[in-house]
Amino acid sequence: MYLKVSIVLAAMVVTFALSSWKLKSAEISMVIAAVVGALVAGLGIPVRILVEGLFTNLDIAILFACASIFVNIYSFTGAMNVVTRKLVQNVGSKWLLLIFMAVFMLIPGALTGAGSVSVFVVGGLVATVVRYMGLSEKKTVAFVFIFAILSAAAPPINLWTMLMTAQANMPYVGFSKLLLLPILIVGAFTIVYLGYGTKRESKEKILSELPEGVANMGWFRILCPLAVLVGLILLSLYTPFSIPVFGLPLMFVLATFCAAACNPRKATLKEYYNVVTRTMEQVFPLIATVISVGALVNVMAATGVRGLLGITFVTLPTILIYCTVLIFCPFAQGCLSYGSAIIFGTPLIFMFNAAGMNTTVVCAALSLIFPIGDCLPPSRIVGRVSIETVGYKGSYMSFLKQIFLPVLLLGALALVMLITPNRFTFLR
Description:
Layout: H1 2-23, H2 26-40, H3 47-56, H4 58-76, H5 79-90, H6 94-112, H7 115-131, H8 137-153, H9 159-167, H10 176-195, H11 203-209, H12 219-238, H13 248-261, H14 269-303, H15 305-314, H16 318-336, H17 339-354, H18 359-369, H19 381-390, H20 396-419
């Protein structure tokens, strides 16, 4: 039995590697690997298993799309540009501006669950300001990347956590403080590490490079869409039996309509339609990843490969798991994207639960480790997008060296949480 499943696993790995090399698409490669794995296992072409897998993460994909549309419509209204210009005009401290730029990077990813969305929406704007804080091109791309992956791990939407809790039948609650504390620590370290020794340019020079602000964009128009979104989320958390069940996708849709209503410019329906279509083009690879991961994982479960991987990893001596988790999980993220959370994360949750450890803390710790792999091949999703947005011309290895210390700190904090999860239950 083990031999047969090992052969299926080997066939899927080889197929995935060759497909990724030839097609340059991790999403299509995952589906092809799933089909080949099913054929080698003697299942033929299991249409039902593939279709069921494609729909497994459909709710997450819809949430991802709705959240991304909200972020892009909100940015289209000019709110981000106005806030940035006002910050540059009124904040004289380099450190305060770097903190505000970090917060700007965190918001889109935290609302969508994808660091690449942060790079798409505000990456260019943030990079412009950060450069004028004296950061070199290498430090600028590192700043954008680190806060992009931190934004993906930040609450309220952490896709790795959502996938793991769904597979482990856990409620998606109690993660906010557990995720925020390490993110704040790593974010503060990154700002000091990258900003130390730099000198800010003049206010006039920075403003000349920023997009012009939109007339009549006051604070009410800027804050109202965010207030609607936050208000709906808080109502659903604290008065769940007094209001209808909206669901996060509908909340983002309502906030999107609010953002459009608060737009001081008279934009046409065609302009909004163009924003939506551009958004879908941006996020389509990530939605395809979430969907194709479901098909791959379903076939891996049907052929026994998922069980083989999970059992092999969780039956290692505990000390070896602790020593290798910072290697296997990020590289699994680089290969399988969000599928890594299901294939490696879920078995670990069951293992730590059997050992009497707090699974909420374990899940949060793992969801801080997986984003590190977004700079690793073959996908390199956030790393590649960050470099393209900033226009960094140096080698990819030099970029990896620049982000090494912040990433190492993130991994170390997550590992401490993983080793001693019961000590962090006060953050639930």
